[in-house]
Design brief:
The protein is an alpha+beta fold. The chain has helices at residues 15-25, 55-63, 86-95, and strands spanning 4-12, 30-33, 37-40, 46-51, 76-82, 99-106, 111-117, 123-129. It has one domain (4-129): 2,3-Dihydroxybiphenyl 1,2-Dioxygenase, domain 1, CATH 3.10.180. An eight-stranded mixed β-sheet has the order 2-3-4-1-5-8-7-6.
Length: 131
């Protein structure tokens, strides 16, 4: 079961320029920073800005035996939902015919991530916080 909208991810062409915009011009305080993305405090939903199509996401997909996620050009946004049990969610949704670009895969930043695709190919992240 999807619990809540956890994160809105904005894919950008220049991470530093976007950091300055969202932090300095809009005033969102930084929650966490990583090499390829920055997360901002934005109420109950995290606002994340990340480099469009970073090489690391393609590496994770390849290591998991998955196809590259659909290209996400700068200026696009992506949703991320949280679940309590990603393995069960993944199995249930696959049985219902939901296509995934990435099976549940542990990430360096402490979550397990899967990426499902909507009927138009929009990637939707599903995460389980730490295990």
């Amino acid at each position: 079961m999807l619990m809540r909208l956890q994160t809105v991810i904005i894919h950008c062409s220049d991470l530093q320029r976007s950091l300055i915009f969202y932090r300095d011009k809009l005033g969102f305080p930084v929650k966490r920073q990583y090499a390829d993305r920055t997360e901002f405090h934005c109420g109950p939903v995290t606002l994340a800005v990340r480099e469009a199509n970073p090489p690391a996401s393609r590496r994770v997909a390849a290591e998991a035996g998955q196809a590259d996620p659909a290209p996400l050009p700068p200026g696009r946004a992506q949703l991320s939902f949280e679940v309590l049990d990603l393995d069960s969610f993944y199995k249930e949704k696959r049985e219902k015919g939901v296509e995934f670009a990435l099976a549940p895969t542990p990430q360096d930043f402490g979550v397990i991530l899967a990426v499902m695709l909507d009927p138009d190919g929009l990637p939707i992240c599903v995460v389980q916080e730490g295990r």
